[in-house]
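Could someone model nicotinamide-adenine-dinucleotide with this protein?
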Amino acid sequence: MTIATNVLEKDKNLLFGHMTNMGHEQVVFCHDQETGLKAIIAVHSTVLGPALGGTRMWNYANDAEALNDVLRLSRGMTYKASISGLNLGGGKAVIIGDAKTEKTDDLMRKFGSFVDSLSGRYITAEDVGMTTHDMEMVKMETNHVTGIPESMGGSGNPSPVTAYGVYMGMKAAAKTRWGSDALEGKKVLVQGIGHVGEVLVDHLTKEGALVTVNDISLERMEEVAKKYNADFLEGDAIYDADMDIYAPCALGATVNSDTLKRLKCSVIAGAANNQLADEEIHGKMVMDKGILYAPDFLINAGGLINVYSELEGYNREEALAKTEHIYNVTLEIFNLSKTEGITPNQAAKHMAEKRIADKVAGLGLIK
Ligand code: NAD
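Reply:
Sure, complex below.
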């Protein structure tokens, strides 16, 4: 615990200070000598239901970076579940280490037993650095895991449902910006054509949008561009390109002070989490530039809606119908943003927080 001690020496209120600022209920540090497991489970809120959120394995530079990530991501899950009308709270787990070299079946099973020790207050799922096989190991130790393969009776890959929600959010943004939700003839740049990006490209090209794709993998770009008769653009030239809609579907923080100097789009709507490098600063800069930003945690909630459905007995049609509703909520958020003079991101957070506050008031819970 030398590193943690040093961090705590620098910032003596590191733990409860962060939890108080961000409103977390519980943070669990998990350690196992034998397997080398080092994990943090953050339960941000259980007001609306059990805290659900994936497990990420990442080679964090230090414990403070891991803690920061899990606290931020778990709070994001609370907002995402709340605004999507799900009876779920928000949580997340991080495992510290290199997923390629340090992950073993025993380590994942040990992690599963820690999840189980929370008796359902936290439900886990797959995230960055996790595979279906890892989730099978977790499932051997706990039932509090979701997003399992269809072959095991689960809901399978959530990405097509996520892509459908992003498509709905994009259409709502088009309706607000141009008065019609038709995307035919609109120039859309999709950055990152992975599991979500490719399905989004499929929806867009079927509707007649003029799609340009971008990915760090040239092979992937060429393959997808050919399949959907789309154009492709390499590297960060995308930020100078002529486009109506920018759809970030790769990494977070691509909407930042540098890219905002260059971006010429009218709408930003994509799947990536935490697109705004700084929610307040860049949310405001986007608005001042006259760009309409569809909040990421709202329009990329299809995957969460899909795994939630698994908890209740999976039905893909129902999950898709609920995901379609993202269209209406996105319109509502843009209206709220306009009438209140706040950014769409702030409006979305207010709506999510209000649902939680109403539940607290209704249940007579102590806040
Ligand atoms: P993925 O790993 O399948 O695809 C990501 C793609 O982005 C890959 O093709 C990768 O090569 C490309 N990429 C990586 N860095 C890039 C860069 N700098 N520039 C251009 N391309 C780059 O991931 P995914 O499941 O499609 O998810 C995409 C994003 O959406 C992620 O940010 C993820 O966190 C978020 N998201 C996904 C889901 C889901 O259901 N899969 C749900 C919510 C949010």
